[in-house]
């Protein structure tokens, strides 16, 4: 697709930060999103991830006996554990290799090739620029690519071009989007990295900045080379060491100042992390202001979507600042969030800020404002010396468009948080009811209920039998209907015999079984059974 060509109708804009989980199951029980992978596919993925420098628990190969049932079951457990390790690692789970392995339908395209095509189309209209080389995988985003550039009449000066596709949070109209992208080079602030050139179409944006040989704040923390692939630089650092206290205070204050500036301007950011902070001497400068305009999700989106109190872009920025401060302090990201306890820090003032942004209480009750963080002891006494005056003029019409887009981004975040909350409750309920302890409890309750029911039935039967006996001891006994009694009148003797027979049946003969409530079996006299019985005379025919 050419650079200025419109995107195809109905194109799905994926959120690449949505975490993927994988479960190996028997083929008969798979119900949704099915992929078929052989062991050789796992082996190929594992070899590709070796650049990260991590020791991943892939089960070993086996040539003989690899079709045995026991071996297959054991390997299935091992491969499941392997996938669990990958998908719970924040950097690995977001990399293109893992996404293509777990979701090939949505990640089958070659995004480097697409970016090259669009950049080439751009240079047809801007011949003064020239591509030196692609900077492969220096960032974590799948649909954002980087190229080392130069100006033809200034061959020694190096620049970096970034191209990015649209994301799922792009709510600006095409016209407003392109106008705001072209405004970015006019943004001047001592703590924002300057944009040299910016342009956009209906499907992507392209920006050029000066290439910084020192790299980002994350490169400083991890002692990494800026041009190396993201996985190699940050997955398994050789030395884990935080920054000095004064650096933490200065860099933290500078970042908070620029966040406050953007919030006051009504410009949504939401993309703070150590790789988006460029170092220029002792000064931190914020990168990638275009990300929120493009609708790209945050690096820490999977964390923010877990906590329903982090529901505005301002609170997202504050929470992301907590991650950044943790990384500056300890030289590594937190193992999990929320953080229950913090390791020893250079100052208790650092821990106080971390607790206000990453602790269980903070995630449950909400984030402080940027202004509140600036007043905390860690940053309140930092003096900033800069002569550059901030300048970023946004027309009123575009400010309104930004406000509406910001509300839409926050609404999608809230909806996602609700879905995750409901899914978590359902999972807990299923796990609780499916546990071995609960099964035993249900079996015991079922047995007790069965016994109780049997006892109640037995008592009811005894009571009915007792009532029938009591009714049988009265003057009247239930007889069968008269039509069931065969009476043969042949002589007076016979008549007498018949009467005697009826009398004996009434007072002491064999009794039929009683059925309570039955019309035929309720206790009543012979007169009730047949009104004419007392008057009838049995005569010889």
Automatic annotation (TrEMBL):
Ranges for region Disordered: 420-474, 489-541
Compartments where located: Cytoplasm
InterPro entries to which the protein is assigned, alphabetical: Kinase-like_dom_sf, Prot_kinase_dom, PX_dom, PX_dom_sf, SortingNexin/PXDomain-PKLike
Domain of life: Eukaryota
Gene Ontology annotations of biological process type: early endosome to late endosome transport; endosome to lysosome transport; negative regulation of monoatomic ion transport; protein targeting to lysosome
Cellular component, GO annotation: early endosome; late endosome; plasma membrane
Keyword list, A-Z: Cytoplasm
Bias (Basic residues) ranges: 420-431, 440-452
Ranges of biased composition (kind: Basic and acidic residues): 532-541
Occurrences of domain Protein kinase (ranges): 71-464
GO molecular function, one term: phosphatidylinositol binding
Composition-biased stretches (Low complexity): 489-501
Cytoplasm as UniProt keyword: yes
Composition bias type Polar residues, residue spans: 464-474
SUPFAM superfamilies: Protein kinase-like (PK-like) (SSF56112), PX domain (SSF64268)
Boundaries of every PX domain copy: 1-109
Name the UniProt record assigns to this protein: PX domain containing serine/threonine kinase like
Organism in which the protein naturally occurs: Prolemur simus
Gene from which the chain derives: PXK
């Amino acid at each position: 697709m050419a650079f200025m060509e419109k995107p195809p109708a109905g194109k799905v804009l994926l959120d690449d930060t949505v975490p993927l989980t994988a479960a190996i199951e028997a083929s008969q029980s798979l119900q949704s999103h099915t992929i078929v992978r052989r062991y050789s596919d796992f082996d190929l993925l594992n070899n590709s991830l070796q650049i990260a420098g991590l020791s991943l628990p892939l089960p070993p190969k086996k040539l003989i006996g690899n079709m045995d049932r026991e071996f297959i079951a054991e390997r299935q457990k091992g491969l499941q554990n392997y996938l669990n390790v990958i998908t719970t690692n924040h950097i690995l789970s977001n990399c293109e290799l893992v996404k293509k392995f777990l979701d090939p339908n949505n990640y089958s395209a070659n995004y480097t090739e697409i970016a090259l095509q669009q950049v080439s189309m751009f240079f047809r209209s801007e011949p003064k620029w020239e591509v030196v080389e692609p900077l492969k995988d220096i960032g974590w985003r799948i649909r954002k690519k980087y190229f080392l550039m130069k100006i033809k009449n200034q061959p020694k000066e190096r620049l970096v071009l970034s191209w990015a596709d649209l994301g799922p949070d792009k709510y600006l109209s095409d016209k407003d989007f392109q106008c705001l992208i072209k405004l970015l080079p006019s943004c001047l602030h001592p703590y924002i990295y300057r944009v040299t050139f910016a342009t956009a179409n209906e499907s992507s944006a392209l920006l050029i900045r000066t290439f910084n040989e020192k790299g980002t704040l994350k490169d400083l923390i991890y002692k990494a080379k800026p041009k190396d692939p993201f996985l190699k630089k940050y997955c398994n650092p050789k030395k884990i060491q935080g920054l000095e206290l004064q650096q933490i205070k200065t860099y933290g204050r500078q970042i908070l100042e620029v966040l406050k500036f953007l919030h006051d301007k009504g410009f949504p950011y939401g993309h703070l992390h150590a790789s988006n902070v460029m170092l220029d001497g002792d000064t931190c400068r914020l990168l990638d202001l275009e990300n929120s305009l493009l609708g790209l999700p945050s690096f820490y989106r999977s964390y923010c979507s877990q906590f329903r109190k982090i529901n505005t872009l301002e609170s997202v920025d504050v929470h992301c600042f907590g991650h950044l401060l943790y990384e500056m302090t300890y030289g590594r990201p937190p193992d999990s969030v929320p953080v229950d306890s913090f390791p020893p820090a250079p100052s208790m003032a650092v821990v106080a800020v971390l607790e206000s942004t990453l602790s269980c209480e903070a995630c449950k009750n909400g984030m402080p404002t940027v202004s509140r963080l600036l007043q905390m002891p860690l940053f309140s006494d930092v003096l900033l010396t800069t002569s550059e005056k901030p300048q970023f003029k946004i027309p009123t019409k575009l400010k309104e468009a930004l406000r509406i887009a910001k509300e839409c981004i926050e609404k999608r975040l809230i909806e996602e948080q609700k879905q995750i909350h409901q899914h978590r409750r359902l999972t807990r309920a299923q796990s609780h009811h499916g546990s071995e302890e609960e099964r035993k409890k249900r079996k015991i309750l079922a047995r007790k209920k069965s016994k109780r029911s049997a006892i109640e039935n037995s008592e009811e039967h005894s009571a009915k039998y007792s009532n029938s006996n009591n009714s049988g001891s009265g003057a009247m006994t239930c007889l069968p209907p008269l039509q069931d009694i065969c009476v043969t009148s042949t002589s007076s003797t016979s008549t007498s015999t018949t009467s005697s027979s009826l009398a004996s049946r009434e007072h002491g003969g064999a009794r039929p079984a009683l059925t309570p409530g039955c019309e035929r079996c309720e206790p009543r006299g012979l007169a009730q059974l047949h009104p004419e019985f007392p008057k009838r005379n049995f005569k010889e025919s």
